[in-house]
Amino acid sequence: MTTAQMPPETMARTNRLRGRVTVLGGLSILLFCASYVMPTEAGVILSLGVGLTFGMLAVLMIVMRTSDRKKVTTNVQSIENVIKNDPAPSVVTDDAGNLTQCNKAAVALLNCQVGTPFSEHLKDKFANPAAAVYRLQNKATSLGGGEEDIATRRGHVRLSVNRVSDGCFLWRIEDLGERSIRSSNAETLSIPMLTASKSGTVLFMNESCRRILGGRPKTVEGVFETLPVRNGAINTLITASGELDSLVSEIAGIGGRREIYLLPGLASGLTEVSDWTFFDELPIPLIKISKSGIVTSANREARKIISVDMTEPAPLSDLLEGLGRSIADWIEDAFNGRLGNKTEVLRVRSDEDQFLQVTLNLMMQDGVPSLVAILTDATELKSLEAQFVQSQKMQAIGQLAGGVAHDFNNLLTAISGHCDLLLLRHDQGDPDYGDLVQINQNANRAASLVGQLLAFSRKQNLRPEILDMRDTLSDLSHLLNRLVGEKIMLSVTHDPDLFPIRADKRQLEQVVMNLVVNARDAMPDGGSIRIETESRTLRTPLERDRAIVEVGDYVVVRVTDQGCGIPQEQIAKIFEPFYTTKRTGEGTGLGLSTAYGIVKQTGGFIFVDSVEGQGTEFSLYLPANNTPLEEVVVEAAPAVKQTIQQAEGVVLLVEDEAPVRAFASRALRMRGYTVMEAENGEMALEILEDEALSVDLFVTDVIMPGMDGPTWVKQALTKRPDVKVVFVSGYAEEDFSDNQAKIQNSVFLPKPFSLNDLTATVQAQLQ
């Protein structure tokens, strides 16, 4: 290994060792010589001892120097063997950035020479290479390595570096691919075009573009009068002879790079083009439209994106649709200049799921006006828009259902509550007793219906616990067999290694029952229903039906029937409340909407696959819960006897619904409580201003006009911290669980509640 191949630090250390060896060797020889002229024996011994010590140190340093040289030689040879046959250009530099080694690929690409600065050989490849080399070398010094993707005229390269040893760095240049357009044809392309980096630096500009601009600006700011560039619209160019308008089309590339095309044919000064065959060479979907609305020509990319035979002239209305008005009127507006830069999203007639964003621009050919349409694939954008609209629609319906359910719960609380009061005054022999029982039972049925509305709006109360779907379906199978009847065979199969889930068992059973009942109704002549469970791990997100199931473990429950199936136009509506294909009286239209709400509130997904005349399959994706959690044990409410049981205590009842307040106050007074009433939170705080007033319990609605329940209770508890609280609401407990968690000694009582529910909860709180 030559000295030039050594890293500078190694060379410096070697030179220092050499100097020290020389000094120590000289001192040793001098002391040996001095021992011969010493007058005393002690002086002779001292001179020989010190000289011998210096000599041994010199020998040790020679050994160290030899070892260092061998180690460096081994490292250099190892690096040389590694990079010698590497197809990517690889070089080794020292701490000053000078080349010490180059492989054949580097010599061929960079024409590099040992001993010259590495950055000098990169000047023809990309802008400001010295800064990139400096950044990466500092990163390698501190972190051991680094890399950057750099835009060049011909594409992107990845420049990477690794620190081999002190003052020794191994560099590698990796080509990430050629430019997205036909690079060999770009220079001779008659269409002016340029390539710009993400930061706006002009990386490439063909001869046509340089001729129009009168030079080669370094940045996009030097090309366009205003930024950002408006794709598919007319932009003002800055040229050597003044401003010039041009239609601009921009194509995004890798790493933020952009291909920008300046399309000719405008009456703004660009040369008119009579031969339109060059359009086939552009990577931009373009079609030419006559004043009568006929597509007279289309380039290769347009034919590819539309996937329709456009070799013969055809009306644009035969290819695209979706404006909501006549396409002929739209084209006429474009010829008359009434569209401006407005774009339209149209659907391709041959494909229901393909959408295009179309921008029309007026062009001139031999003095005859025509339209050139720039097409952009908007299928993904339209899908996201449809997903957003569907989400907004379901959210709006959910809010409506939740609001209706809340109001109904107040009405049902008053109805069932006053019915309970009447039942206390009638025994079973009374002629009116049966009528009262009917009222009570129908109120309970109405409450169940309202519960389904709350399920859809995801506002019902859930009691989640760790479940094994095998056990849940096993417990439910007897009831399901009774539901399907004798004509239908029900089979259940399980994955032997099924993940556990965390869900409300009662609500999940309701989902399965609703799906099985729907499957039964789809097979009036009999058939089979299969329920299958499996564990599934998603390595990549699952995208379907405008929903994205994230990566993770799931339990998949499938309910499959052999029924009549669901028409494709109805599948998008089946989860909406009150939508049903059954005849009047056969269904409420809440079964699937309830299932949808429960599954979504559990954190899962529900999908449907159906072929009309063959059958339907519903798939539930429920998140697995592999972390054991302590199951929440819900204590049963204390049983309250029908006989009036006297109690003591002062209750402040706050309820904005007068019928509910009247029932609750009467029920509590009948039990012996002293009740003070308020119709809102502000009135309750006014009552509590009397410091001499003793209150044992607050019973308050959560949602009220003005100050809501948790808000006024927090203020009241600042002066009365020992008072206990009962919150009542027609919404779910989860809607205000965060607020309730901050209020100690509080419980929740959902509406509608019966007389026994109310008195039992109050009694439990006051004990």
Describe what you observe in this structure:
With 767 residues, the chain is an alpha+beta fold. It contains 19 helices and 31 strands. The strands form seven sheets. A seven-stranded antiparallel β-sheet has the order 13-12-11-17-16-15-14. Strands 2-1-5-4-3 form a five-stranded antiparallel β-sheet. A hairpin with a 2-residue loop joins strand 16 (355-365) and strand 17 (368-377). Helix 9 packs antiparallel against helix 10 (433-456) and helix 11 packs parallel to helix 12 (505-521). The radius of gyration is 42 Å and the shape is extended. The termini are far apart.
How can the largest sheet be summarized? 7 strands, antiparallel
Q: Structural class from helices and strands?
A: alpha+beta
Poorly predicted segments: 1-5, 178-184, 265-275, 629-644
- Helix segment tally: 19
Task: Work out the helicity level.
Answer: 25-40%
